[in-house]
Write a structure and sequence with these properties.
Elements lengths: L6 H21 L17 H33 L1 H40 L23 H19 L5 H13 L5 H15 L17 H18 L4 H29 L8 H30 L5 H16 L1 H10 L7 H24 L3 H7 L11
Helix pairs in contact: 1-2, 1-9, 1-10, 1-12, 2-3, 2-7, 2-9, 3-4, 3-11, 6-7, 6-9, 8-9, 10-12, 11-12
Amino acid sequence: MTPQRLHGLDFLRALMMSLGVVLHSAQVYLTIPATDYYWDPARSPSMDVLLFFINTFRMPVFFLLSGFFTAMLLDLRGAQAMLHNRWQRIVVPFLLFLPPLAAVMTLLRIVGRSLSETGAIGFDPGLIANARILWDNTHNLWFLYYLILYLATTALGLRVWPQLPGTWQQKLRARAGATPIYSAAIFLPLCLLLAGIGSAEGAGRISARLSFVPSLSVYFYFGLCFVAGWLLYQRLPDLEVLANRWARYMLIATALFAVALVAVLTQGEPGNPSYLPLHALLSLSTGFSIGYYMLAFVGLFSRHCSQYNPWIRYFSDSAYWIFILHSVPLVIIALLLHGWSVTAEVKFLVVCTGTLAVCLVSYQLWVRNGLIGQVLNGRRHTSVPWRK
């Protein structure tokens, strides 16, 4: 059965991408250095909590939706059309936009590091602690890089699938179609695997890796979310179940996040007597928090954003461009605010709103109705919500 357009999940995917503006703005004002391109002298623990919160669910939800929509394309259009679509929407933008983005961000990284270290504008590449990052860096397009890896894995799987015995294919299809993602048979192993892989990191979860050398932990961590999304598509009626349960799942996820936050703040350094039990608690609570957040957000947006809305559609169309461009104006605005003596929260709000404004204006003027918009979204638009 062909599903109608899932406006809620489109919007959710766009929101997760656009939250990169908030996430990366917060990075500039953390109390501990988490970025090597610029660290502002105004810092606040509120930025630490905000970063930890968004990082808990953002990319897992995004990769789950990527798996869901890839499975949908395969079902509706067939293998060749799906692979062609993913090539056009993922591989081409990565190859097209990474070179200019890398050139500009490398320059801004050097200037930002000089300003962070000396308090003055400069251009000293020697201040970059890890010089390799100047060339071995996918920047904020790292998620496209891993989607390309998942696309290659999917293509390989599609070649292997016909070689499997027919009885195996029938059993696998039946099992996928009979088991809800929220059932213990899928949800429990998913969360435990996320917790196990995430335990290798101090934060209890896996974060982005920008190198062109693939990270197996990143590949498998977010690959689990991708597969979960693929399985979710096999049982579309379960979206209604999630829509009815979203508040319950959100409450559980947030309670588990609170436990993880306390654990990460109190675990200390490896070697401390309390580190191992607290880190185990952190990893488990984070793994299950991620699982429940994925279910909760899918249910929330399926329930409350399922109808077409021209403003939401406009935002969803602009999100890809926002994520590709945002790091450039974000760093420039942050550098310009370096000497402004206000709180980190005020600077953060200015950077967020300024970056979003630049991205949306540039999208409307140069992207939406042009060739770039066609590359990113597969079509050119001729209207905007306020003219309808």
